[in-house]
Give the backbone structure.
Amino acid sequence: MKGGGSAGAEMSSGRRPIALNINFDSIAACLEAKGVEVDRRTFVDPSFGTIMDRFHRLADEYGAPLTIYVIGHDLESSANRSAVRAWSERGDEIGNHTWTHVQGLSRLSLDETRREIRRAHDVIAETVGRPPTGFIAPGWATTRFVVQTLIELDYRYDTSLAPSWVQLVGQAKLRLSSSGIVEVPLLRRGDLTGLLWGSRHAYRATTSRPWRPNRTGLPMLPLPTGPWRMPVWHTMGFLMSRARWEKLLRSAIADTGAFYYLMHPLDLLDPDTDLVGLPDAIRKIDRALVPLDEKLRLLRRSLDIVAEYAEFVTMERLAEHAFSR
């Protein structure tokens, strides 16, 4: 193993707690974003099988638990529920990624927000035997209603804020390439302030000030960023030269007090095997057709860099560490 261990107030080895998490946008969710109807009860989703098997093999090499934020709607499948239960039993943390993966979360009312979060909360608790304590919103939509609902449900942390102008570019591209998502004008997002000027470092969020530090409130772990608020999660590695990506990754690790590395199922999808029998629409999604060997090289190199600094922990433990000091 290349890493491993548990979190402590300070790491005797000089390492620091860092989490590996998967924003579990399933193949079913990706197809729906392309306007393809999916019956979640019967659809055989490779992200819950062969794709996660690859993630677990890598995680075992690095001695790292995973934190996996699942979409509640995916758990209507008994096979998916069994898979998620097994992940929890092996030591992974299972978090909440809303019920339907709604892209317009920032424009929902309080009651609508509650339904999206609470319904997923309940099915995850039933599946793994304990309620989730961490959350990430689709499209990094952090709003006062999200914060209020998570406080009501006694969540220990949220990780929905992406304090970067780059997210607007990404959301614009998603709108142009997807036909099955809720259309929300980018400049009318309810969390635009957070995207542009939100805190880059761990802080406590309140319903009155969800994007800036407060003395009390919900622990918030924003998406790590580097210089010029460039966001750092694995997808960015596909968009840059190797040298630029590695420089940005190291910079973000050095500058982020509570660093975590976020991935998606598509990052280890094998186009030669996992797409067999699926609608052609899935092939139009970014990086779906990147060969698996290339994906593995990028992810291994990125994890090698992260492991230089890391004592790998779950996001729940990372939040405990960040807010215990």
